[in-house]
Amino acid sequence: MQPLLQLQGIEKSFPGVKALKSASLAVYPGRVMALVGENGAGKSTMMKVLTGIYSRDAGSLRWLGEETTFNGPKASQEAGIGIIHQELNLIPQLTVAENIFLGREFVNRFGRINWKKMYAEADALLKRLNLRFNSHKLVGELSIGDQQMVEIAKVLSFKSQVIIMDEPTDALTDTETLSLFRVINELKAQGCGIVYISHRMKEIFEICDDVTVFRDGQFIAERPVQTLSEESLIEMMVGRKLEDQYPRLDQTPGEIRLKVENLSGPGVHDVSFTLRKGEILGVSGLMGAGRTELMKLLYGALPRTQGRVWLDGRDVTARAPQDGLANGIVYISEDRKRDGLVLGMSVKENMSLTALRYFSHGGGTLKHAAEQLAVGDFIRLFNIKTPSMEQAIGLLSGGNQQKVAIARGLMTRPNVLILDEPTRGVDVGAKKEIYQLINQFKAEGLSIILVSSEMPEVLGMSDRILVMHEGRCGGEFTREQATQESLMAAAVGKQHSEDLVV
Ligand SMILES: Nc1ncnc2c1ncn2[C@@H]1O[C@H](COP(=O)(O)OP(=O)(O)OP(=O)(O)O)[C@@H](O)[C@H]1O
Ligand SMILES: [Mg+2]
To answer: In a 10 Å sphere around its CB, with 0-12 CB exposed, 13-18 middle and 19+ buried, how is residue 372 labelled?
Structure first.
């Protein structure tokens, strides 16, 4: 089949990093091409070279059979290539419709913007994606998931022939993901070619026709998805067999460290649980069940209406995030883009930001040396791909940014570590590295709360599991009792009270 788009032998270097060594990719009409590879393998860079955001150092690009170079994102967009970037690119102060049609507002023959038409077209796009908000809404008021859907609506509005989606479902609920998949199938039927970048194996096998594998900036293989198994695909990605994805550490937990009693607040009603030393409590539930809200309440980032939190028998009920931190309760946000990292600052600064007080003993040089050492240790421990600790974190690949966020939390030597979706956007190999690190800290007695939408992750790593349902505790399970089915039943509110563990 003649590809719509073909890139061959692409090379691209940045100071200190050769991001693409010899990368190739083809996009076929009416087919979805998955692009997979570990964090930092060069997937996003390839897409930026392709759309003309970056120039290439070497290699060829053929668009509709002709050798081409796009001198900027506008050129590729006009040629018919649409891209949904890994990072959101919306303007929060503008409405949904203004964002979708930014820079190409409908102008009538008197030179006036035809607002009515713009909003009507935007609403039609939202409807096509089954979205419940209208296009007059300000983007800044939408959830991250809805903002992602606006990015998708925007790319659809261009009526492109090739559409690139760089980890589009990271912030989406299951229903939103289904709407996206339905639209992808529509686009396929119209003959569009799609590039789908994701770390979620399930999605690749569900929606993609072919898969291209990158490793270290190089093309490894292109295969039809149906000829592969999950294991064989992972093996191509990481270059070795990956066994035992969830390395659970079995140990008898210590005494009770954290006790949460009847906690209530926005989106959370009367939740109680305990957490021991050296224990991992998994928190499961559907998106919107109040998991993140519960954690924010616990940590002091949301106002509490009722309830108490005890740490080692002391009342540590938090009123502000500083209270949580001061008590050694550290929360690593699911949304590292909004309240996680400072993208313009270096890896070092981002990592040691919250841990600064630990380096504040002794004089200036001593402090500096200690910081340097600790950051260096964590970069090695987490295998973070960066040319140096001075690199701006915005220049790291998405997954490597996530590793920095987790390292930052651990650096403060917390008593209780709350990880909210810690492996979102992280590749399979690095996921396992993160699990092993979590276990290492668990062995040292750290108490961990693991909030995750990925059922296998919760099941594979937790000692006990709390399931949230509509802001309440929908069930609590020991590791032995928990199965995919029982967790799912509790998440949708089908749990019978007699099954509850007290
Ligand atoms: N503008 C830039 N300046 C310097 N280095 C960069 C820049 N953009 C990307 N890199 C580096 O190039 C390499 C490839 O990054 P890229 O973002 O393409 O990876 P990726 O495959 O998309 O990873 P992920 O799955 O984590 O999103 C990484 O080492 C990254 O740090
Ligand atoms: Mg990327």
So the answer is: middle
